[in-house]
Structures are given as C-alpha cells and as structure tokens.
Amino acid sequence: MVRPAVILGALLFASAAAAEDSVVLGHGVSNAFLWKLPCTEHTACLDANYVWVLDVDRTVAGPQITGRVRAIATQHTDATAEFVKSVELFVLSPIQNSALQESSGAKYYLVSLSPRDSQGRYCLSVRPSDAGLKLDASVVATDPRSGYFCFTAAALASNNRWRGP
To answer: Which residues constitute the domain of residue 33?
Structure first.
C-alpha cells in the first residue's frame, strides 16, 4: 500500500521542463514551509511550496547529483519527520531561474518521491520512463488506489549507474 504523507502537485514552473531530470537514492532530512502559492478564481488555495533537504547517496538516472540537496516541492501540508526520513527515491529537476535559486536556496524541483512501501517497492507519481528510468514495462505496476507507478528496488539495477538494493 502506498502511504504518501504529502501530495505533490504539478509543478507550476515551466522552466523545469527544459532540463533533464535526475533520479537519485538517498534519504530525506527535513521539510519546511517556503511560501504559499497565489490563489486564483480557479484554484482551491490549498497548496504551498516547501523546501525539502535530502542527502543523495547515488544517482540512478540522469545528470549526476551527490551530497546534500535542497529542492522545492508543491504540497498541501508539512510532511511528518517520520515520513521525511523514510523517503529514499527522489526525482529532481533543475531550477533554471537563478533568482528563484537564490531566494529559495534550492537548485532543484522535487518532481516525485517515494519511501519503500510495505511490499519493498518504490512508487512514483510520474511514469518511471518520463523520469529517465529505463525499466522493463513488466516490472512496473500501477497502484490501483493512488495511480502511482510502482517497482521493486531490484528493478533499478537495470539502470547503468546502480547495481543493487
């Protein structure tokens, strides 16, 4: 069962789409409120931007990232400390806007994230192939409750930068 403690919204920053995403393994360190997103007549005004701090151990796909990273995520509420520390897999997209990088201290948008679920799987809100993961379609299952795309940690071994859980 997928138990996401936060719901990541679609990122509102068009510049993120221009750069290649990185998929990394590591662990979450913290999650803190950054700013409230502006409301319009067509939004429910429930989302805000948060800064995640994570320690990256290795890059599985995309441009190489290591060390401590700050990333902006759109979510409804703070993530619990327990959830933050449980997250192992992150999809990061570079922030192209230097003013936003400077004001937030973040170099990446957090596109999707996943702890390992009770079945030993990672589940992403984006298609693994869209994030740059080269997984055989037979190892990716869609979770019927969340619509997330799930696969075992061992399936990541097919990506050339990582050789085992």
So the answer is: 14-116
C-alpha distances in Å from residue 136, one per residue of 23, 118, 133:
16, 22, 9
What CATH number is attached to the domain comprising 59? Answer: 2.40.50
| Residue 154 placed within a domain | no
* pLDDT for residue 11: 33
Quote the pTM value. 0.80
Half-sphere exposure of 24 (CA within 13 A, CB side): 27
Specify if 39 maps to a domain. Answer: yes
Sheet strands (E) in 37-86? 48-61, 67-75
pLDDT digits (tens, 9 = 90+) for 64-75: 999 999 999 888
Q: Smallest Cα–Cα separation from 125: which of 155, 93, 90, 157? A: 90
Using the predicted structure, report yes or no on whether residue 14 has a pLDDT greater than 70: no
What pLDDT score was predicted for residue 36? 58
